[in-house]
Design goal:
Blueprint: E1 2-3, H1 11-19, E2 24-27, H2 32-44, E3 49-57, E4 60-70, E5 77-82, H3 88-99, H4 101-115, H5 124-151, H6 164-175
Parallel strand pairs: 1-2
Antiparallel strand pairs: 2-5, 3-4, 4-5
Domain Transposase IS4-like: 2-140
InterPro entries: RNaseH-like_sf, Transposase_11
GO molecular function, one term: DNA binding
């Protein structure tokens, strides 16, 4: 299942993913037709609705669904597009997967800002090495944090015990010989 940002809300993107045999879940921009559906849901007293639709573009066509679910950020309704078969009873739980994306975004930001070495090289091999090394450092940090929490028998929440900067200092002191 591919979870994309709202910027990927496009029938051509939906079809490309379908052509690749990939299930997708993408938030929709709310247009006048979605507003009408939401207004109808409110009149009917519905919190969740599933609307069947289809994509027809140059690259092909496929069946899809629009899922109308309560917003997790505010009052109101959020609309998602998917090619997976989802019943109204499953729609809210199915779309809750999307709210877990924030963790991935935060992890990538941490890799980019805390662990990724700066380079001006245009050589993809150098850039790939730096990125893979940054991901390795990030994983060392998260593993170290997990082991510290397990040893202290503390709560396994998301907040780290050891900061990214402290982890980088520990790793660099082990890699670089003292003066």
């Amino acid at each position: 299942m591919v979870l994309c940002d709202r910027e990927f809300d496009s029938m051509r993107v939906f079809q490309t993913l379908s052509n690749l045999g990939v299930d997708y879940l993408i938030p929709k921009r709310i247009t006048s037709s979605e507003h009408k559906a939401i207004e109808q849901m409110e009149r009917d007293g519905q919190e969740v609705a599933v609307e069947s639709a289809s994509v027809h573009v140059e690259q092909g066509s496929h069946a899809m669904q629009f899922l109308y679910v309560p917003s997790t950020k505010s009052d109101g309704t959020t609309v998602f597009g998917t090619n997976a078969r989802v019943t109204p009873d499953e729609a809210e739980a199915f779309c809750r997967r999307y709210s877990s994306r924030w963790q991935i975004e935060n992890e990538y930001k941490s890799i980019k800002h805390d662990f990724l070495a700066k380079t001006s090289s245009k050589d993809y091999r150098v850039r790939l090495f730096y990125f893979v090394f940054a991901v390795l450092l990030y994983n060392i940090w998260r593993l170290t944090d997990f082991l510290l929490k397990a040893a202290a028998e503390g709560e396994m929440d998301y907040a780290p015990v050891i900061t990214a900067g402290e982890c980088v200092e520990l790793v660099s002191s082990a890699l670089l010989p003292p003066d």
